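dude i think i finally got it to work??
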Amino acid sequence: TAISGCGPAYIFLMAEAMARAGVELGLDPALSERLANETLFGAAALLEHAWPEVDAQELRHRVTSPGGATAAAIGKLQENELIAIVSEAAKAAQKRAEELG
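look at this
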């Protein structure tokens, strides 16, 4: 439940965040939303095609040029502990699912 049941909402929230960031950077809202969604579609398709031979971590490394824009963005996400935040969210979902029985 915490991963596959709630997981789509995690991805939808990421799409919202990416689209909002695009608007903050000056993009038209409709274009920003489309770019965010298409990026997530493409990344999911790439992951589906590559997995299980290549996992998400390896794909991330392959698209992250050292010292580039992607590296700067990933560094900020890691600095703000995105992985720990997602882990805590999943734990909260699991706890609530158990409470609901």
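DSSP finds five helices and no strands in the chain.
im so relieved honestly
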